[in-house]
Structures are given as C-alpha cells and as structure tokens.
Amino acid sequence: MSHTRLIRLAVIGSLILSAAFPTLGQTSRGEAQFGPVVRAYLGYLRNEQEVVDDRASRHEVNVAYYRRNSNRIRALRQMAIQIALETQNDYLPELEAVASDELGLLFDRPPRFQTLKVGDVVQTTFRYMGAVRSGDTFYVFARLDPYEQADLIQRVSVSENAAGSPVSNRPSGARVTTRARRVSVP
Questions:
Q1: What is the DSSP track for the chain?
Q2: pTM exceeds 0.70
Q3: Treating both helix axes as pointing N-terminal to C-terminal, what angle do 36-57 and 63-87 enclose, rounded to 10 degrees?
Q4: Are strands 136-143 and 126-134 parallel, antiparallel or unpaired?
Q5: Rounded Cα distance, 91 and 172, in Å
Q6: Which of 155, 154, 160 is nearest to 178 (CA)?
Q7: Is the dihedral of CA 4, 5, 10, 13 positive or negative?
C-alpha cells in the first residue's frame, strides 16, 4: 500500500471513531462547571433515565409511569443544578421529588403543599426545597442529615421546656439516628 493511502485510512478511521464515541471521556454540556459530587449525581440521574427508557422500550411499564418518572428525574436534575449554582458548593443533600398525590409516601401525616414555604422543615426529617413544574408539579424535599435532625429535635424539646409544656425528648413518631462524622486528614 502506498504511504498516502495509509494516511487516508488512518484519518478516515479516526473520524469514524470520533463520530461513534463523541462523549468518550467528556461530561455533558454545562456539567464541567460543577465539582465531582454534583457531576456524579447528574450522571446518576442520567442512568436512572436510561433505566426508565429501557423499561419503556421493553413495554414493562405503561406510558403514565414512564412520563411521571421521566418528569420526576427532570425535576430532580433541575433542583440539583439550582442548588449547586446557588451554593457554589460541591455538595447535594439527598433529594426526593413527589407529586401532590404522593406526599403520603414520605410523610405519616402529609403536609398541605399549599402552605409549604421554601426552607420549611417537615416532621424533623425533610426540608422543603421548592416546587418544580416538569409535566406534573413535583415538591422537592432534602432529607436532613442525622445531626440536623438531632439538633432540631433538641431545639424543639428545649422550647417546649421553656414554654412550660411537658418534657418530651422527641416529637411523636420522630426517630433519631446518629453516625460518626468523617474527619478529613490532610
């Protein structure tokens, strides 16, 4: 083979490979501005969407299920990006997105979504992050970490003691869990 023919084949081969794998080693558009934790969460959401798409393509789920879960994933993505941009921090809390008819899945006594305000803590377990309209309206909550829960429960019991109410170590139905904090070693 001639030298120019080999070069042509190499160029054509590299063009075919670059067209076949355009995202190899790259992050999605706009995700490069985020740290590894946020990028990992957004990647997790992409994977979840692929699972939902796959199940739909195999006719394992109905159209309503597919649409609601795709919209839920879109709402979680939108909220995650909003949190990351607002805080400029590479940290995301554990997020849950539920429609108004699903609030009972998260709460024993579901709050009235009409009265929720961003930042409200619901039943010492979740902080309300806001509503996202993605097909349905999804109410996004961030799970409080065990230290936030314990601190909140302690503040509630102290305020009850100050008000002269009966002493209660925790609100009814509240469960306190603890875990060791991570220590960064330089």
A1: --HHHHHHHHHHHHHHHHHH-TTTT-PPTTGGGS-HHHHHHHHHHHHHHHHHHHHHHTT-S-HHHHHHHHHHHHHHHHHHHHHHHHH--S--PPEEEEEGGGHHHH-SSPPPGGG--TT-EETTTEEEEEEEEESEEEEEEEEPPHHHHHHHHHHHHHHHHHTTPPP-SS-TT------PPP----
A2: no
A3: 170
A4: antiparallel
A5: 31
A6: 154
A7: positive
> Strand order of the sheet with strand 95-99?
95-99, 136-143, 126-134, 121-122
**β partners of residue 143:** 126
Comparing CA positions, the residue from 84, 97, 85 lying closest to residue 37 is: 84
The per-residue pLDDT for range 7-65, each reduced to its tens digit, is 565 555 554 544 444 443 444 567 888 999 999 999 999 999 999 999 999 999 999 99
The residue behind tokens 């960064």 is 184
Give the residues across from 121 on adjacent strands. 127
Residue type, 168: S
Q: Which amino acid is at 145?
A: D
